[in-house]
Predict the structure.
Amino acid sequence: MFGWEFPPHISGGLGTACYGLTKAMLKADMDILFVVPRLYGDEPAGSMQLISASGVEVDPGDEVFQSEGGKISLFEIDSTLLPYTTEEEYLDLVKQLETVDQVSKIKWDSRTYSFSGGYGKNLMEEVKRYAIVASNIAKAHDFDIIHAHDWLTYLAGIEARKISGKPLVVHMHATEFDRSGENMNPSVFAIEKTGMQAADKVVAVSHLTRDTVIKKHDIDPEKVITVHNGVEPFENKSLVEVKKHFPEKIVTFLGRITYQKGPEYFIEAAYKVLQRDDNVRFVMAGSGDMLPRMIRRVAELGMGARFHFTGFLRGPDVDRMYGMSDAYVMPSVSEPFGISPLEAMRSNVPVIISRQSGVSEVLKHALKVDYWDIDGMADAIYGTLNYPGLMNMFKKHGKKEVEGIKWDQAAYKLKQIYQNMLHV
Amino acid sequence: MKNICLYFQVHQPYRLATYRFFDIGDHDRYFDDHANRFIMQQVAEKCYLPANDVLLSLIDRYGDDFKVAFSISGMALEQFKAYAPKVIESFQKLASTGAIEFLAETWAHSLASLKSKKEFEAQVSLHKQAIWELFGQKTVTFRNTELIYSNDIAKMVFDQGYKTMLTEGAKHILGWRSPNKLYASAKVPGLRLLLKNFRLSDDIAFRFSNRDWNEWPLTAEKFVSWFQQAAPGDEVINLFMDYETFGEHQWKETGIFDFLEAFPALAIEQAGMRFKTPGMLAEELKPETELDVPYPISWADEERDLTAWLGNELQDEAFEKLYQLEKDVYHTGDEKLLRTWRLLQTSDHFYYMCTKWFSDGDVHKYFNPYNSPYDAFIHYMNVLSDFTIRVKIPSPAR
């Protein structure tokens, strides 16, 4: 398997997803070699063999090396290239971007390469370099299947396939379309498409993502299979009891305030609810490039007294926020999976989620609306706050449902896919 | 085995419109007239009219040997009048042959029998009146919504003057006994019970076009041969099902209409059987024994209980709030409010809120216009909230 990061050194959620998945795969009797750009030595590998791409020797005369090395072009990347980024991770990333900028340019004649393993400005260079190293790793090891996680590792997967002749599975955790809408980064999109075309099977984390790659990347539907993500069992921390200092109910949006997350739909729905219900306050927690616009819009609608911005929240504050909430809304425009509603449900908060999210495909005890359907969203919020039957249902079933969404199911399905490919 | 009892249920609810919370207090256009008209007209063309034609030709051919029972809900009758008057004419034509028995039920296809004796009786009377006016028949047999039955309901039905009632041949009630006999109520022994043979009924209603079923395809020959396997002493096979089975649940292309025509012909001509109405059978047969049913049964799902309509938090809240209004609604003396209250009692609304279909299946999904029980609940509660406001306003202001 080719990944880009592994806990505890993660800046996106990709590492967390790979960790959960591989752990379940090991339980299901699969042996895994997991390659990451660099290792720190404290990764919880268990019985899995973790391989660092840093330090693997490559021959500067290597044909692949030559052809790829010559064409390397650097371009500025922005942080939104990552899947599963949470609010906290996003800020870390911004910091990282600033520091990585100072990392010296790599010399292409060196025989080994020390990857930063992050998401800095040299990202595209690292992605290509990773591919070159991958072919060497593929030569040195014995395996049956190559599995590459997200576009960052697709070139590596393709090289490994060329060298070994083994079948390639590429795993779409997020697409460039989800991250950027119609303003896609063409280089990233091209790598996604090349990776999926070269692959023998494509695994998508939701039907939504499957549809995206079929429609946007023009991939043969026959070879795209949905394997829904699982969730790591949450540590058994007690629910935060929070004292509110006002009687009104609270409806919360918590996440990056960016195009992908649909914050403006939350505001418009809030406005509709406030027209009829004065026993409610709305909270938008998080930061992002759309925040100033959102603050202006709330002011324009004259509901500042009932609509609050918290800025960005960290760990304990996030739990407190859930503890205070009577409803959680995730109005994402495009969410390949989406883990935050599950965290809300675990805190016994009813959730209203957009149908344009992978998680809506696996959740039953959630209210689902199209992200653009402001009336429907407002109605769902109003209903949750005013009809006790809903709250009681969610409380009774929500937490239990989240606990049932396991990585084991994903690992089982993946094993079947592998077995079909290997005809065993 | 000599007798077959064919009974078909005809029902269409008044489906709710998308009614948002900001419509509360603003307007009372609760029902989706377009959808209701469209669905009624479509089902009329696909099911009611062609199926009636098949029955007419069977009656024509077999005279006294072929009889059928129908129960048509009050709101189906109303919607026929409004949207598909040809269907009424077609049923009237059937009625005029004398081969049809129309059964009594609650006008609004409601669950009133579980909650309010007064409302139950009012709806049964309304329905009785409607059948009399349209078909000139005085109903003598009762069937409750979704074949819901219990000792208490038996008493109410008997008190309304009915001597025969239909219900489900639920396994947990019958035990080792056969559904193919006449029974009586343990609570009111004067009330005769005909029980649905659910295996044979569901072979048609649910399994007819299912290619995974090991008996597929179901031919008339095979089906009639199963009648002959009944135990000695069995007297009637009760085939009870939704009329929409023909052409709507099972499409025309599956051959369901050919089957509807072929199996009675075969049963009469080759097996020497006769099709009789519940009223006739209750007169002819002697009750085998009395059945004690302390907890309500129905014809729905594996459980054959009420959990398709009541029991989860959503259903219970909606149901309680609705019937809490009973006194206030009557108190207004307002015919329009009373009628609306009844339309909101239709069992379908509660069926849409069932969360069992998360696991129990396609049948529920098929009949559900909502994406989820939560959506159904929110729409219903918005409507009920508005309705409550209107009921509570003192009448001069209304």
